[in-house]
Design brief:
- By secondary structure, the protein is α+β, with helices and mostly antiparallel strands.
- It contains six helices and ten strands.
- Strand 2 and strand 3 form a beta hairpin.
- The longest helix has 11 residues.
Length: about 250
Amino acid sequence: MGRKILPAGPGRQLTGLYYARESRGMTRSELVRLTGVSKQQLSRLENGVVRLRLDHLKPFANALGYSADQILLWGRYPGTPAGGGHIESSDVLRDEPQREAFGPRPGQVVELDIRAGMGGGGVPSRELRKDGRHADAVKPEGWVFPPGFVREELHASPAHLIVLDTTGDSMVPTITSGERVIVNTAHRTPTPDGLYAIRDAFGAIVVKRLQLLRSSQPTRVKIISDNANHPTEEVPLNELEIVGKVICCLKLV
């Protein structure tokens, strides 16, 4: 039976610190022992009595295996489960004298602070969590798309979308280096065939065309570059990490 999620109390909202701890199956006593933070302070931070800042979360990041940014933006940051309560980005503050808002505002689509490779070599993920998954930084400003466009054209929820800046020439002429793509992170199965953002062997995000080889046993996936000068690869499906399906390209003309 799963752990019971308790309400935060009238007028309060459970923060990302609470959900990060629960996702690890860790009790407050265990987290207190690992970090040295008092149980009273931990309770205040989890229940929204104290507004979270990056400096509050530094002691918890290593113990929980999430970056401070992920905990602050829980549910909106790639790599954190959607749903449940989370701190809105307008409530997330940097530990800086300006105390300015950090991260995309509610309803905005996040852009990862990396360039997705297309043959020119992507930038590796900045951090690897204890569970082996990657934690990518996000840019401080998000993208705003009309709700009708997201709903009727992209057929997705803004919470599942990310924007990637691309580099390289392997997907020319479909995607040119420097163009941005919108990725639906809720679609991580390579069907139907099409463009997907995937992790390469170095942890970098790359955009490629995937073709599922359904007749092969075990199931394999062909990784295709639209530029004929780049080779095609095949890998077992269970060895491929799919970030999401590319559903739109943002082009400058």
